[in-house]
Specification:
The protein has 295 residues and is of the alpha+beta class. It contains 9 helices and 7 strands, in the order H-H-E-E-E-E-E-E-E-H-H-H-H-H-H-H.
Length: 295
């Protein structure tokens, strides 16, 4: 059973430790990191928006916000609809879900239990990240508790803190793949060149994560949109390079004969696609045009 990590909250002076521990999860197992990061993000969101502290195993299922509709039911709310990309569909006991309400997009806390929430079989036929169990969940009149007000989920500073936490997991996943190269008994010039390039890529990723942690702790109420996009793009590029260079240096052997390594590569390849690639770079470019350049 994957455990729920107990991490320092972002912006409280120990953000670097939070990111380091997320990276450790990613290095050990990208799937454990995906689920653990989701739980840790849900804890941080509820703390930031003043929600009650429930126990259990939490996910944040916020993709395609308008795929779920929220309606008032007396003094409470109920949600209906099908939500894709629900990582930990069979693991999470609770989730934070976005839904379209009469006053805009809201965030709600829901219990992941039948008959109100039912994972749909056949909706996660994945190879990479298969064990994350990111099935679609059908909500039927599920009791829901609002967490914050309309629009608060995406407009709060912590939205971008969470995005940087995902990048820390990617970095950890890249470290786990690089471990195969570190351990290889090869010292020919081509292998050493790949090893050096991997060190450069990982060093750049680590540097931007540590910078981000310091910036967040120095001003936790600032909306770090540009910083988060830059960090995620840097770490994504580094992890992609690590996957490529480890494969080029070691050949097909580890991918074909080392089940753990092969699974890591497949898992991280899918996990990195949580990035929006050129769409995020376009956003970043727009922010760069409208803000001062860093020194």
């Amino acid at each position: 059973m994957i455990e729920t990590p107990d991490l320092p909250l972002p912006g409280r002076g120990a953000t670097a430790e939070r990111l380091r521990r997320l990276a450790e999860l990613g290095r050990a197992d990208p799937v454990a990191a995906r689920l653990g990061e989701g739980h840790a993000d849900a804890v941080a969101i509820r703390a930031e928006l003043g929600a009650e502290g429930d126990g259990g195993r939490w996910g944040v299922w916020a993709a395609v916000p308008r795929s779920i509709r929220a309606v008032r039911d007396g003094d409470g709310w109920r949600v209906n609809g099908e939500r894709p990309w629900c990582s930990g569909a069979g693991w999470c006991t609770h989730a934070l879900v976005t839904a379209e309400a009469e006053d805009g997009i809201r965030l709600f806390a829901v219990a992941n239990e039948a008959p109100y929430a039912v994972p749909l079989d056949g909706t996660w036929p994945a190879v990479g990240m298969a064990a994350s169990d990111s099935r679609t969940i059908r909500f039927t009149d599920a009791p829901a508790r609002p967490v914050g007000g309309p629009g608060e989920y995406v407009n709060r500073p912590g939205f971008w803190h969470g995005g940087i936490g995902v990048a820390a997991c990617w970095y950890g996943g890249a470290l786990g793949i690089a471990d195969a190269l570190y351990a290889a008994d090869k010292a020919d010039p081509h292998t050493l060149a790949h090893l050096g390039a991997v060190d450069v890529a990982l060093g750049a990723a680590r540097a931007v994560l540590l910078e981000a942690a310091a910036v967040i702790d120095a001003d936790p109420q600032a909306v770090q949109h540009r910083l988060a996009l830059r960090v995620r793009a840097t770490v994504e590029a580094a992890a992609t390079e690590v996957i490529d260079r480890v494969g080029r240096a070691l050949g097909a052997g580890p991918l074909c004969r080392d089940e753990r390594h092969a699974r890591r590569v497949a898992d991280l390849t899918v996990y990195l696609r949580q990035s929006h690639a050129e769409a995020d770079l376009e956003q970043l470019g727009g922010l760069v045009r409208n803000e001062k350049s860093p020194w």
